[in-house]
Write a structure and sequence with these properties.
Shape: globular
Strand order of the largest sheet: 1-2-4-5-6-3
Number of strands: 6
Distance between the termini: 20 Å
Helix content: 10-25%
Oligomer: single chain
Length: 143
């Protein structure tokens, strides 16, 4: 069942996104930077589906998540009023980093692929270990 947070199916999180006028240029084509916003929302909702709220991680552990690096491949454009699906999978969890592989689809067409490394950082801006309870939830999602 899909909720506002999407759903996880065999380790793959699926998150629906509608393209609004504000996401596009005058020709109705989605701005390239908007895909990063869609992917960010999907990663947040993936964690929410796992029972993790980033605000609680910050309060309880003093940890924030920041994109360390991101490789994006734009294959086809999305357009105004398209219904897209961001498909996300968490991969290679390490001490202070988490890998994510994401794709943005319209129907049967993959429009954008993203490969990211997310760093856990303390409020001082330095690398911090990912809390063990989050590691366990991520490992369960990967199985």
């Amino acid at each position: 069942m899909t909720t506002l947070s999407g759903h996880i199916e065999r380790g793959l999180h699926r998150f629906p996104v509608r393209v609004y006028y504000e996401d596009t240029d005058a020709g109705g084509i989605v701005y390239h930077s908007q895909y990063l916003n869609y992917a960010e929302r999907a990663r947040t909702e993936l964690l929410r589906c796992l029972g993790v709220q980033q605000s609680a991680i910050r309060l309880d552990h003093g940890i924030l998540f920041a994109v360390r690096d991101c490789r994006v491949e734009f294959k086809r454009p999305a357009k105004f009023d398209d219904l897209l699906e961001v498909r996300s999978r968490l991969v290679n969890l390490k001490g202070a980093t988490l890998g994510a592989s994401q794709e943005i689809w319209r129907d049967e067409d993959c429009l954008v692929t993203l490969d990211l490394r997310i760093a856990a950082v303390g409020e001082n801006g330095r690398a911090a270990r990912i809390p063990s309870e989050l590691k366990e939830l991520v490992k369960l999602q990967q199985d």
